[in-house]
């Protein structure tokens, strides 16, 4: 729930309580695919002084989409909320017993920068509702008759927005008549106006009205019980159904009553009896359409004779209005909660005597003898849970409580709070955490009640049932309260019907023909004369009779019998044998000749084989069509983006997948009953089949196995729609997805939904969201011209297509393997194993693919040998199944490689990525048998086998694999690797003893090459070569291999080895890297560790530049200077490893001072040409914005002042550059010339002097470009002018002296 806001307006408590109510609003363009508001709606509910709004979309998840408003002491009127859409805004008008309010929210079209919304989530219109001033008098009004009184408040309400933008409220006054309150447009100044619509007493007498109360009731006769409003041309009509049973039509423009109609005149009988009783439960609804015009539906609540009257408003030539009677529809006798009038139908919502929700609809013009169409509402959870003797009570109750389609989280949370008798809140728990909390709570209660130390297992089981049934009853009670229906909503744009309940919303899905027959009530079923399943009337009759027998047989099944079939299918037992067993039990328990009655009815079915065939055909969703998941071509970007979001929200996902679940449950029961009925047919035998044995044989060998197959299939679909997906830890998820990526199957994404933690996601929802939805939508719209017709989102048609296609994708006998592939790609391994288990005994499609994904499950569970066995079994089906062909195929492979080899290559890559070398060797050995005529593949496989044997230390097996390799190039590579690895492992005995048949010269060449390339201190390959020849008695070769090594080379190798040792002692973690590092790499490692003395010595030995040493030391100085004491301890450690210059001082030195002193010492003792090292140090400092210390600057001045100036300019150090030039010019003129390395200053007798004019000109230009440096620029220009004057003077004197 989003914000909880208070909208106080200074009203007093009215003391009036109203019933909870609800309603809905659909956007005008909710049926248009290319609209931001497609499939988008708002629903609200009121309870006391609180109203809750929720905006939802079937296409995208809306953020901040719920808000709860509270108007203290002001109960919301039933049906007192009205929402209207304008071009720029959504306006919400609502009325309480004492106040009226207006909320102005932005229209979704104006909340986004573009009408092409590509995000998976969008902001709701309620996102910024907290910024509204709900107490603004411009948007609220306190009713005058309610102030300071204990008035009952308005009896009814209606509200609308005028064409001028005013907000108008029509309120049924408790004193009679109608009060019209008008708020000025929300964007204009204005005052509230109040007008009362009430006829004078004269008019009342003329019309036959009695101003007195009805039968002594204190309320007036014209008290408006129900109000609706409609704008016609330039006027607005208010239709008021009053408690005197009269319908009054008021004109807002004329402020007068235009028409009064006595609704009791439309009652065939009993109207007179009602005249003196107030009609306080009557209801009025309105519908306007271009085809029917303006129609009204009046519900007359009359005990035992309730009815709906549908009337049409007609305008005469003289602008007078009348009501034409269209039809009268008699209601069933349940308690009406709400009803809706559409352009063609009346939809009704009732509660029956058992407090169960009933929904029906009827065409008010074209209906069969007033017969209402039945809507099959999802039944409430069972009042009692059947627990078999072999079942764990806890698990049985948990399965029902936490099934995604049974109980809401809110009901379980409320029951848990009551059960724990505390105030602890559980709203922040996830679905799994809530489940654990329930288990812990009940287990603690159970343990606390046990007083005996020992009792039998059966007693403990009974105790469990007692506690769990008690908690279950509590949940059931809250679920019933939260499921209490409040209203119906029918979207005019999409024809979507919703039941608005106290805590949530239920959607109505279209019912398929075969499900409709099986579920229909007897009353409705017996009125059927034909069915769309059959094409001719005789077959229709047979099917209806057959289904009637099915329904009758169902009534005789006990809970134990139903459980027995459920258990059999779950445990992979034969449904045929189980149905035979159940049928025998029915025969044995048939004391009232019920089965005989069914058998007699079966005699009337003329063609039972044909009827069963048709039923099974309707139930079978097997298709030969290939899955085309490619994007539809030829559609515009807008259409493609809209299609990519269609039905993509978590609400739509949950709704559609629950539809699959309900369909599967219904059809599973139908298949079960049909299977038992087929056993009855077998039992009757020749008495019912006049054709004799051929029909019995067809029944036994074809129809019964087919029905059994369908039963198992629908059980599978039901289980997958109820099985929750697992939340995989992120690290495991990333690892598994990385392993799966080597298969190169698809870009399937990991589960990433935006569902509430208390809204569990099933694996079917996971599949629908990640894979199926895009493919389904693409198939539905592949042949439609979207631009020609935007209003394509007709809910019953669309959702029927989506459900059918989704079931076909799940159908295991279809070629598509997308569902198991999705489970594998999202690491749902336990669920995938269950899927494969359930289809194993009876599904013969994609057998190899199932073995492969099962192998992947075993891999994830660490059962490598089982996985390898599955992969081996799958290999036989590679060329037959689409999934395995896709798995084997690769753009990098040539068309000459056999599919099975490509398949094994993917398996090998998978096993290598996971790190299972033994399985790689085994798989590669199997693959070699498939590569008899493919040398290239053989070479690759032997190379793989060699590599993994070598890694495992199987030296002999590695050598054998090397010798089997048919590719000389790969063989040589393997040989080289064998020599190097065995040398590094010091397993020289194995290397020497191998025979190396036909490879002797290659081995010698490899060893000689390595001997010349590798440091002798690391590996002495000469000794190996010596031993190799000695072992083969080749003494001539031994003599030729003795080389004389120069002392210089030994010294270099020694220093490099000593450097590695020093590094390893200082930093043990670097030892593995240092072992094979070259001299250049060692310098870098030594500098990083702080071993600068060692690095300098190594550079000098190998004639390397000292620049990396100076740069590294400079960087450490910078870090120490700016990190303070943070790294002092570490710094002293590496400083101690270097030879610091000794100096006598009374000052306590820090590590930072010592580091700078070490740098100065190095610069002094390692001079460079043109001061390169000074320059690199200063450059490093300036690159980190660190000013060089004075001693360094002074040293550089003496060596090369011009280079120092260029460095300053390179790093935009204009201040320092200017000061340097000023000092340099002064030095030229004799002031401090010794600090710049100038032997004699400027004079007539001195040698020639010069300035770096190019750099100085660059400095002057930079200074002149900024006003900040204006003073510096002037000083520098003045100094240069003075210098030039003295230079000119000295030059003249020198010329004169000549």
Automatic annotation (TrEMBL):
The entry's keywords: Nucleus, Transport
Domain Nucleoporin Nup120/160 beta-propeller as annotated: residue spans: 40-514
Domain NUP160 C-terminal TPR residues, every copy: 1046-1295
Location of this chain's protein in the cell: Nucleus
Residue span, NUP160 helical domain: 536-767
Domain annotation NUP160 middle TPR: ranges: 811-1037
GO molecular function, one term: structural constituent of nuclear pore
Keyword Transport carried by entry: yes
Listed GO CC annotations: nuclear pore
UniProt xrefs under InterPro entries: Beta-prop_Nup120_160, Nucleoporin_Nup160, NUP160_helical, TPR_NUP160_C, TPR_NUP160_M
Predominant place of localization: nucleus
Protein name, entry field: Nuclear pore complex protein
Gene source species: Triplophysa tibetana
